[in-house]
C-alpha cells in the first residue's frame, strides 16, 4: 500500500474516531413538561439522546402521578366517578363500618404512614383529616375553629385505629367520623414512582419538582451536582442555602405555602395532630434522603417536632439529612451536609 493510500486511510480513521467521540459527548436533549396535580404545579425535566424517547418517558411519568393522585384524592365531589376511584374516599366513607380493599400503592402509602406515626410518637398522622377539614385549608375559606369543635375533631385522630390487613389488601378506620388525609405523603410517593417510570424508559438524568418536593435522577446535564435552592421563608425570591444533590430528593415543608392571618397571627396548614393547632417550632424544614416519599413524611414530622428533636431524629436515621429554620430565624443542618450545602449569609430569615 503506497503512502498516499495510507494517508487517506489514516484521515478516514481519525474522522470516524472523532465522529464517535462527538456523538458520545454531545449535549443531552432536554424534554420538559408541566401539569397541575395534587394541588400544585408539577414539572419534569428529563434528558437523553432521543427527544421522542425522553418525551414518551416524561408522559408516562405524569400518567403514573395522575394514577397515584386519583387514589389519594380526599376531596372529589361525593358520588362522582373521581370519588369512586379514590381509595381514600372509599375508606373514609366506610369508617366505623367495614374494611375496604385498596390498591397496592395505597396500601404501601398507609404502611409507611403507620411506621412513621409510631416512630415519631404521633407527630405524623394521616388520620388528621377531621381536624384539617375543620380548619378549611382545603377550601377557599380557612378559619380558626372553635375550641369545642376542635376537641371533638381531635378525638377522632389516631393511627392506632387505622387497621391494615396486608394479606387481604384492606384498610379500615375503626371509628365513624375518622378521615384519612394523605396530603403529607402522597405527593412524595407519587414523585418517587414517577422517577422509577423515567428509569424504566432508559432515562438517567431528570429533575422532578412537585411544589417543594424535589427529586433528581443522576447528575445534572452539565456533569455535576444539581443545585437546589432552599427558599427564604420570610422573603419572596430569597434563597437561604443551595444544596448540591445527585440522585436523591429534597422535600421542604414550610409555613409560607398555605396560611392565613388573623389579628397579625399566622395560621398555616401544617398541623400538629396531637394538639390540632399549627406547629410553631419551625418556619421551614427540608429533608434530604434517597426516597421522595419518605422525605415528604419526614419533612412534615420534623416540622411538627421541636427543632432539637427533629435534628436528633434525622441524626438517628441512616441517609437522612435535615436543614431546619427555627421560628427564631436560626438555620441549622445535619453535619453530614457540610460539603453539600452553600449557605447564603446575606439571606437571613
Describe this entry's structure for a reader:
With 349 residues, this protein is an alpha+beta fold. Among the domains are: 75-173, T-fold; 225-343, Roll (T-fold). It is 36% helix and 25% strand. It has an eight-stranded antiparallel β-sheet with strand order 1-2-6-7-10-13-14-15. Strands 3-5-4 form a three-stranded antiparallel β-sheet, with helices on one face. It has a three-stranded antiparallel β-sheet with strand order 8-9-16, with no helix packed on it. Strand 1 and strand 2 form a beta hairpin. It is globular. Belongs to the ApbE family. InterPro entries: ApbE, ApbE-like_sf. Keywords: FAD, Flavoprotein, Magnesium, Metal-binding, Transferase.
Q: Which features characterize this protein?
A:
349 residues, alpha+beta, T-fold, eight-stranded antiparallel β-sheet, 10 helices, 16 strands, globular, disordered N terminus
Q: What is the name of the CATH superfamily of the domain at 225-343?
A: ApbE-like domains
Individual helix count: 10
Largest sheet: 8 strands, antiparallel
Q: Give the CATH topology of the domain at 225-343.
A: T-fold
Shape: globular
Q: What is the C-alpha radius of gyration, as a whole number of Å?
A: 24 Å
- Reading the helices and strands in chain order gives HEEHHHEHHHEEHEEEEEEEEHHEEE
Q: Roughly what is the average pLDDT, rounded to an integer?
A: 92
Helix and strand content put the structural class at: alpha+beta
Amino acid at each position: 500500500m503506497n503512502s498516499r493510500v495510507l494517508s487517506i486511510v489514516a484521515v478516514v480513521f481519525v474522522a470516524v474516531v472523532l465522529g464517535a467521540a462527538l456523538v458520545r459527548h454531545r449535549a443531552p436533549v432536554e424534554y420538559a413538561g408541566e401539569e397541575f396535580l395534587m394541588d400544585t404545579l408539577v414539572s419534569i425535566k428529563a434528558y437523553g439522546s432521543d427527544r421522542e424517547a425522553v418525551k414518551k418517558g416524561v408522559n408516562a411519568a405524569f400518567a403514573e402521578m395522575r394514577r397515584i393522585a386519583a387514589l389519594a384524592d380526599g376531596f372529589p365531589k361525593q358520588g362522582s366517578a373521581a370519588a369512586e376511584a379514590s381509595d381514600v374516599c372509599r375508606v373514609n366513607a366506610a369508617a366505623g363500618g367495614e374494611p375496604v380493599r385498596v390498591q397496592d400503592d395505597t396500601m404501601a402509602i398507609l404502611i409507611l404512614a403507620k411506621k412513621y406515626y409510631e416512630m415519631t410518637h404521633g407527630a405524623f398522622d394521616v388520620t388528621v383529616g377531621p381536624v384539617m377539614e375543620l380548619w378549611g385549608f382545603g377550601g377557599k375559606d380557612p378559619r380558626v375553629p372553635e375550641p369545642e369543635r376542635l376537641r371533638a375533631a381531635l378525638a377522632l385522630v389516631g393511627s392506632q385505629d387505622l387497621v391494615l390487613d396486608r394479606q387481604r389488601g384492606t384498610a379500615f378506620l375503626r371509628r365513624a367520623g375518622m378521615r384519612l388525609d394523605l396530603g403529607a405523603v402522597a405527593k412524595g410517593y407519587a414523585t418517587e414512582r414517577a422517577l422509577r417510570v423515567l428509569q424504566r424508559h432508559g432515562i438517567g438524568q431528570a429533575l422532578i419538582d412537585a411544589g417543594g418536593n424535589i427529586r433528581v435522577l443522576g447528575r445534572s446535564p452539565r456533569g455535576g451536582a444539581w443545585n437546589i435552592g432552599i427558599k427564604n421563608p420570610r422573603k419572596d425570591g430569597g434563597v437561604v442555602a443551595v444544596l448540591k444533590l445527585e440522585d436523591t430528593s429534597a422535600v421542604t415543608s414550610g409555613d409560607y405555602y398555605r396560611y392565613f392571618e388573623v389579628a397579625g397571627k399566622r395560621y398555616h396548614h401544617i398541623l400538629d395532630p396531637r394538639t390540632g393547632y399549627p406547629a410553631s417550632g419551625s418556619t421551614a424544614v427540608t429533608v434530604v434522603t434517597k426516597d421522595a416519599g419518605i422525605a415528604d413524611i419526614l419533612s412534615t414530622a420534623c416540622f411538627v417536632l421541636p427543632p432539637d428533636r427533629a435534628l436528633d431524629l434525622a441524626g438517628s436515621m441512616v441517609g437522612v439529612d435535615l436543614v431546619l429554620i427555627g421560628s427564631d430565624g436560626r438555620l441549622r443542618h445535619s453535619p453530614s451536609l457540610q460539603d453539600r450545602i452553600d449557605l447564603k449569609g446575606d439571606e437571613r430569615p
